[in-house]
Amino acid sequence: MADKSKENFEVTFWGTRGTLPVSGAPFARTGGNTNCIEVTCGDHTIIIDAGTGIRELGSKLVSTSPNQKIHLLLTHAHYDHVEGIPFFAPFFIENADVDISCGKLEGAKDTSQLITDLMDRPFFPVGPEVFSANIDYNTLEENCTFNISDAIKITTAPLNHPGGSTGYRIDFANKSFACITDTEHISGQHDENILKLINNIDVFSYDCSLRDEEMCDFRGYGHSTYEEGIRLAKIANAGSLLASHHMPFRNDNDLDKIEKEMKSANPDYAVAREGDCIKLR
Ligand SMILES: [Zn+2]
Ligand SMILES: [Zn+2]
Q1: Distance CA 17, CA 223 (A)
Q2: Which among 80, 91, 146, 193 has most CB atoms closer than 10 A?
């Protein structure tokens, strides 16, 4: 009989906050950690972004599968997407294998330099020389496609964000997941790069930081709305949309309201909350 676990395709959210972590009762149901998504494809572990959510994920990985190779895909290097890097437990495991990939970003020579700068003084006490894992750094070209194994295909697209950001699509076992964060849409236009990336996708998470009515106050910060997420999902024939990158001023009740509006467009659309696990296969 075929080993079903080899085709296991799961997406788990370890942090769905954007901009800044939050804490306290008003945020308890959504969770307070910033962006981090674990994608399990068979026996491979892919992580998208290293916000504060990656700390707990790292502890889990070290205790459950210490020898597994980890593929970390960074969308970009704004703090809410990388601030968990110095606290990721697998980096401190001798002979652990981790590769870190990121698109080219304004002001950064390459991905290795990015991590060195992140942990440089005066911002951090120690540099990446404290890591004991074997770390490979990859700097990705725009609109590239590469394979993590024979069965796992990654496709990227450039997003509209100050300094740059990369959207990722993962195809595995005839199913697909994409993460689109952070990106700003132009009112009345739909980003062709995103539409191409999420065409016929099963599930995608999208930068739903804002509401359409709030865009005028946040032009230039590089974020989008859940309404634009719905418009893109419909045009691209996406199966499910998950709203992510929640702003610090958005509490659980606010997100319940947004989710209700999303579900009135399609019952398969939802707000992503910390701990959510979506089984694609
Ligand atoms: Zn962000
Ligand atoms: Zn950003």
Answers
A1: 13
A2: 80
